[in-house]
């Protein structure tokens, strides 16, 4: 492997690791990000750190503060509303198409999401359920956009479950099971309606949590 290729791969690894930390809230919203500390962590110069932070800033996950440095973007009420609005338009269409076009084998494989108990944490379980379901949509462009959108939702899921009163995992899994039932029955119309209602409930949980948290409008 040439030095230039290895250098490029290392930059991609740093970017991916930082993005993963932000989306999982390992780096919480509003946290300061210091070039020097990150360079020490990854054992590199500040150049690939700046490159990664610039890319994350373009994705609105990092804020650049002149003469101060960087910080993780707060979970914005406005951004959350936009994400949910986009998701409510796109995901039901993808799920309906998946129900009508996916193979019997692929649909049967959704049964692994009928129980949360086999997963190490709910955020991972929830993400994988939605990504797997969207992955069954035959339209490659819609599938790609929907899956990228879903990757942005981990922070919102964590926020929506931040209140102990909202950590009713059984109820959320039951909603997933109802969607699986409809998809496996190839009832695309019902599956689309169920996923739309599922998204609506998630939005209410997240907005309730955001209204009580130190976020930006």
Features:
217 residues; mainly alpha; Arc Repressor Mutant, subunit A; Four Helix Bundle (Hemerythrin (Met), subunit A); 2 domains; 3 strands; elongated
Strand order of the largest sheet: 1-3-2
Number of individual domains: 2
CATH architectural category of the largest domain: Up-down Bundle
- Average of pLDDT: 87
Strand content: under 5%
| Strands, count | 3
Helices and strands, in N-to-C order?
A: HEHHEEHHHHHHH
Q: Which CATH C-level class of the largest domain is it?
A: Mainly Alpha
Percent of residues in helices comes to 55-70%
Write the layout of secondary structure elements.
Layout: H1 3-23, E1 32-33, H2 35-42, H3 46-58, E2 62-65, E3 69-72, H4 77-101, H5 104-108, H6 122-134, H7 140-151, H8 154-160, H9 169-184, H10 188-211
Antiparallel strand pairs: 1-3, 2-3
Characterize the structure shown.
This protein is mainly alpha-helical and 217 residues long. It folds into two domains: 3-72, Winged helix-like DNA-binding domain superfamily/Winged helix DNA-binding domain (Arc Repressor Mutant, subunit A), CATH 1.10.10.10; 77-211, GntR ligand-binding domain-like (Four Helix Bundle (Hemerythrin (Met), subunit A), Up-down Bundle). It is 66% helix and 5% strand. The chain has ten helices and three strands, in the order αβααββααααααα. Strands 1-3-2 form a three-stranded antiparallel sheet. Helix 6 runs antiparallel to helix 7. The chain starts with a helix and ends in a 6-residue tail after the last helix. The relative contact order is 0.13.
């Amino acid at each position: 492997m040439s030095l230039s290729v290895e250098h490029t791969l290392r930059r991609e690894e740093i970017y991916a690791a930082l993005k993963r930390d932000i989306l999982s809230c390992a780096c919480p919203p509003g946290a300061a990000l210091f070039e020097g500390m990150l360079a020490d962590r990854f054992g590199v110069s500040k150049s690939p750190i700046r490159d990664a932070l610039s890319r994350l800033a373009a994705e609105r996950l990092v804020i650049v503060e002149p003469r101060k440095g960087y910080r993780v973007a707060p979970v914005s009420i406005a951004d959350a509303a936009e994400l949910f609005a986009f998701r409510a338009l796109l995901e039901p269409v993808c799920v309906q198409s998946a129900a009508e076009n996916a193979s019997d084998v692929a649909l049967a494989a959704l049964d692994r999401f009928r129980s949360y108990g086999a997963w190490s944490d709910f955020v991972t379980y929830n993400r994988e359920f939605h990504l797997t379901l969207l992955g069954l949509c035959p339209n490659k462009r819609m599938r790609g956009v929907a899956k990228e959108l879903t990757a942005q939702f981990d922070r919102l899921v964590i926020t929506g479950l931040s209140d102990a009163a909202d950590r009713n995992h059984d109820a959320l899994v039951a909603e997933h099971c109802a969607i699986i039932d409809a998809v496996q029955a190839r009832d695309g119309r019902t599956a689309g309606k169920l996923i739309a209602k599922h998204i609506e409930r998630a939005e209410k949980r997240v907005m309730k949590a955001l209204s009580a948290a130190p976020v930006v409008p």
